[in-house]
Amino acid sequence: MDAIRTNALTLGYGEEDIIEELDLVIPKGKITVFIGGNGSGKSTLLRSLARLLKPKDGSVVLDGADIARTPTKKIAQKLSILPQSPVAPEGLTVLELVKQGRYPYQSWLNQWSEKDEKAVQRAMEVTGVKDLSERKVDSLSGGQRQRAWIAMNLAQDTDIILLDEPTTYLDLTHQIDILDLLSDLNEEENRTIVMVLHDINLACRYADHIVAISNKNIYQQGDPDTIVTPELVANVFGLRCQIMNDPHSGTPMCIPFSRGRRKKDADHERKMDA
Amino acid sequence: MIEKNKGKWIGLGIGSILVMFFMWGSVIWGLTKIDTQMVIDSFLHFDGSNEHIIIQDTRIPRSLIAAAVGASLAIAGAIMQGITNNPLASPSIFGVNAGASFFVVLGITAFGMTSLMSFTWLAFLGAALAVIIVYSLGTLGKDGLTPIKMTLAGAAIAALFSSLTQGMLTLNEQSLDQALFWLAGSVQGRDLDILVAVFPYILIGLVASLLIGKQINVLAMGEDLAKGLGQKTWLIKVLAALTIVLLAGGAVAVAGPIGFIGIIIPHVARWMVGIDYRWVIPYSGMLGAVLLLIADIGARYIIMPAEVPVGVMTAFIGVPFFIYIARRGINE
Question: Which segments constitute the ABC transporter domain (chain A) (predicted)?
Fold first, then answer.
């Protein structure tokens, strides 16, 4: 079963193409992670899946229908997106933010309902921001703020959630915290999650399906255990590395080669000094 | 809903009373002493006395115009700040007033236009042109619309239109008087006829502004988020731009360019009721009317018996406030 698929999708700004004739299938009920170097077009691709960017050519298909021909509110009831580092208007409270997630269900005739209220309360419970509901979003810590935004996405009550680098600017503790939350949402509520991540090791830990993007198309895709190799990292990121098994999760772990000072050298220097 | 926002509803009531109080004050306070009885008499048995003429021809138009223009400029500023997420956005800073002024002056000097209706359409045209240019310039480049780019584009367009206006005036001295008077930005000495001519458009703008508050709340979270939530953002922006053109263009057609109301008042309104534009917009309307009424009443007393142009009064109040907002930084 596929949640989203693209047909010969070409994307770009102005003259330049960033993605060319891409055919992609996002599996339903799984966590899919896009990886790739800076400027590889992974964020651009994610935005186009959420109809934030119009394709130059080709199409994005959601539930058998081209999203360009589906009413945008209907799409918003099936698919939500959290853009990269969103900024809440100054003074907006967490509750006000989460309530905006119900926008796709409202119209001139349908004002705020019992169902909307329930969805908002539930979204705040699941993400653990209920106690913060009256706090201003701009006064929260980075991790809390990201939870509040995810709560807004959850209030939207969609089967598919797209997130563009949801861990940017968070310290490691909060990166893990947010990814654990998303993993729970996937397992317990069977939501399809598609996200862009920078950290290849975290991508390997959380993804069911990795899509590595390079040269305006898919370099390789599949289960991280089988596809993530030194060769992939070299071709996608231009980085030489060794791949080991993550001692905690057993997933692939990338050990980059670098010129940084090695412990061996440090020992050597100490001996010389003595 | 009513229970929860009780304070805000009460505030709206108090605000409306204040607007009416200062509208009343605008009629009775000034160089010529006027009392309530005279105002009533001037309606019931007009006797052609100096006082009655002043009430009917000067004070009442002035009071109505100040209220309508103040409310329009403040609401136009609130909508601009909401959709651009830019605390410095306002009709005067972004060149909308200057665009409307330039077209009116062009009409007076180059084409000898004198009819009120032609002023109105020229003002709408100029305001619309300024909105389109500033928005297009602010969106140029890969990172799209940013507050900084838009503010710079607005400042540039405001300067361009102002200097074009100056140029028109030096070239056409015979029509200088009429144009200068109109350009001074004032609610005094304006005919009630022009308000009557423009008011239907301002009214449409006011009603539209009250209806799009909820949409502005969504758009204020950023274009991507609004689109992700299923908003037709282009439609909302077009509606908002039309509303701004009706309100700011209408205000300039009646009173000439008056600055600072559009930038200060939305901040005060947000300080009072928070970020929700369903409240910010009506509060801005009320407060804008009150501020311009007070500024205009004050303008009569500072160098009595002469008067200060009300645009100078609003600048006096506005400049320190503007510096304060700018120092707090543009939200990026």
Answer: 4-240
Name the residue of chain A whose CA is nearest to B211's CA.
A108
- The position carrying tokens 């899919």 is A32
Closest CA to B167 of B91, B110, B210, B117: B110
A248 or B188: whose pLDDT is higher?
Answer: A248
Q: How far is B234 from chain A (nearest CA, A)?
A: 12
Q: Which of A16, A67, A90 to mutate to test the interface with B (most CBs of B within 10 A)?
A: A90
User: Which one-letter DSSP state was computed for residue A228?
Assistant: -
CB of B296 closer than 8 Å to CB of B62: yes
3-state helix, strand, coil in chain B (%, to 5): 75, 0, 25
| Interatomic CA distance for residues B222 and B41, integer angstroms | 55
Nearest by CB: A103 against B220, B230, B331: B230
Q: What is the ipTM of this complex?
A: 0.86
Please report residues of A whose CB lies closer than 8 A to that of B331: 87, 90
For chain B, domain boundaries: 60-328
| Residue B68 identity | A
pLDDT attached to residue B1? 45
Q: At residue B44, what is the residue type?
A: L
Q: CATH class for domain B60-328?
A: mainly alpha
Alpha-carbon distance B293 to nearest alpha carbon in chain A (angstroms): 30
Q: Which amino acid does the sequence have at A77? A: Q
Angle at A236 between CA A222 and CA A212, to 5 degrees: 25
pLDDT of res. B331: 46
Q: What is the pTM of this model?
A: 0.85
Q: State whether residue A91 sits within 8 Å of chain B by CB.
A: yes
Residue ranges and CATH numbers for the domains of chain A are 2-78+158-227 (3.40.50.300), 92-157 (no CATH)
Q: How is A199-210 classified by DSSP, letter by letter?
A: -HHHHHHH-SEE
Cis-peptide, bond into residue A166, ω within 30° of zero: no
Q: How far is A108 from B134, CA to CA, in rounded Å?
A: 32
